[in-house]
Every structure is written in structure tokens, then in C-alpha cells.
Amino acid sequence: MQEITLNNGVTIPILGFGVFQIPAAETKQAVLDAISAGYRHFDTAQAYANEREVGQAIAESGLPREEFFITSKVWLDNYGYEKARQSVLDSLEKMGLDYLDLMLLHQPFSDYYGAYRALEDLYREGKLRAIGVSNFYPDRLSDLAAFTEITPQVNQVETHPFNQQIFAQENMIKNKVQIESWATFAEGRNGIFTNPVLEEIGRKYGKSTAQVMVRWQVQRGIVCLTKTVKPERMRENLDVFDFELSDEDMKAIAGLDTKTSLFFNHQDASTVDLFVNLIQQRRGKL
């Protein structure tokens, strides 16, 4: 597996397996299947409500802990220094781990400065090998990088052929922050799996449109997360190192960029309302 070195010297596998929207009851088996397929990089979050099951799969795999790269994310309701710190310790306990390889702040709202200071302290204490953020647009990422002691190692953002994050990646490179993708396949929206440009490129190499999309991210130096509960798809999504997209292919895919999110704009006030409602709904379930 190809690896990328973060700004603190820690290496991260360029391909990872995400467990967003996988029900807790199915998560352990999905992770075990992904391990069998060859994945060692796993991404979960407090908001996914399946951290415990990810940890169970890691424990049951029989493989040494150091072979894995495990990421989780602090949910908005746990922002602020004290709550964020305790939430990370709670995540570690749920997962049965002594440390996490990467912990991110999940959204760019509320007291993310206080939460980030908690991550910095836990990093210094050895509980976290790397820290970062998710969904931070260039302005907020540059702000955080400029006014904190530890530059984020990673920023996880929506990245796929319809929203390619060209400027965001350039800004991350400037700030020495690694870009990582979510929604690599745009969650199937806008007919992405049958897009004529991607299909034509796939036929040229005998690859699926999904493999073309993963390879496109690999060649851009993006840490790429994918999700599926089907073992054959897990293996397929890893099988992207035996071909290389040409400059012509990369230009053709670049032409698909709308520079617009397919999900939500974090700079829109209505998105704040959306996440406030999500917090209230989650509290109601506790």
C-alpha cells in the first residue's frame, strides 16, 4: 500500500475504509471483511455511533495494533476544551485502544478552537499520533493553521469528480496540511457511476468507474476513503495500483468539476441551522 508522510513524520496509507452510514450491527463484520481484503486504514467518528464495533474488529483481527491506522472525529456537541478532551478519552475506551492514529474535528462550527487545543494536548501526551480537521474551507483552515501551536496534519473534505477541491488542495499544500477525501464516489449522486467520461476512461484500462475515481485521487496525492459492505467491491477499490491515468485522462476528468458541493455549503447560514438540528436530534436519542 502506498503511504503519504504527514507534516509531523507520521505515515498514512493513501487508501482507507470509511464506516459512515454502516449500522453498528453490521460494522464489525464490514471491517473484518475490509481487513481480509487488505485495508489497514479505517475511518470512523463519534457521530457514526460505531466506534466500538470498529475497535472490536481490530481486536478480533489478530493483527498487531501497529499495522493499523485508525481515525475518529470529535462531534460538534463535544466541542470546547474539556468536553473534547473527555470525548476523545471516551472514544479510546469504546474502541479498546491506547491511542488513535488520527483525530479530527468533524465540523467547522462552535468552539473548535477550544476543541483543537484539547487535541493538541492529547497529541503531546501520546494519545493521538496526528490531529486535524474535517470540512474546513480554506479561510478557516488558514486561520487555524496560523493561530495554533500545532499545524493540523489532515483536512478531510468532500472530494470527487464533481467537486474536485483544486483551490482547497493548493491552500492545504501551502499550509502543509494533507487533503483527505470523503464522498469519493459522490455517494452515487448525479449518475456518477455511469458518467460517460469516467466509463470511457475505465474501458481503456479494463477498470470500473469506481477504480478510475480512486486512481484519480491517488494521482493527485489525496488520501482516499471509500465505503462498501460488499467484499468484492472492497477488493476492487484497492486494485488501483496496476494502471496510471494519462494527462489526457486527468484533463478529461478535470472538465467534470462544478466546484460545488453536492451536500451542503458550510459557508451558508442554513448549514449552521442544519447542524444545530442534528445536535438536538442526537440529544433527544440519548
Automatic annotation (TrEMBL):
What Gene3D superfamilies does the database record attribute to this sequence? Answer: NADP-dependent oxidoreductase domain
The residue ranges of the NADP-dependent oxidoreductase domain are: 21-256
Q: Could you tell me which SUPFAM superfamilies the record lists for this protein?
A: NAD(P)-linked oxidoreductase
Recorded hits in PROSITE patterns, A to Z, give: ALDOKETO_REDUCTASE_1
Q: Does the keyword NADP apply?
A: yes
Specify the superkingdom: Bacteria
Any one Pfam family here would be Aldo_ket_red
Alphabetical list of InterPro entries matching this protein: AKR, Aldo/ket_reductase_CS, NAD(P)_OxRdtase_dom_sf, NADP_OxRdtase_dom
Keywords, ordered alphabetically: NADP, Oxidoreductase
Give the record's family classification: Belongs to the aldo/keto reductase family.
Listed name of the protein? Aldo/keto reductase
- Naturally occurring in which organism (per UniProt): Streptococcus oriscaviae
What phylogenetic lineage does the species belong to?
Bacteria, Bacillati, Bacillota, Bacilli, Lactobacillales
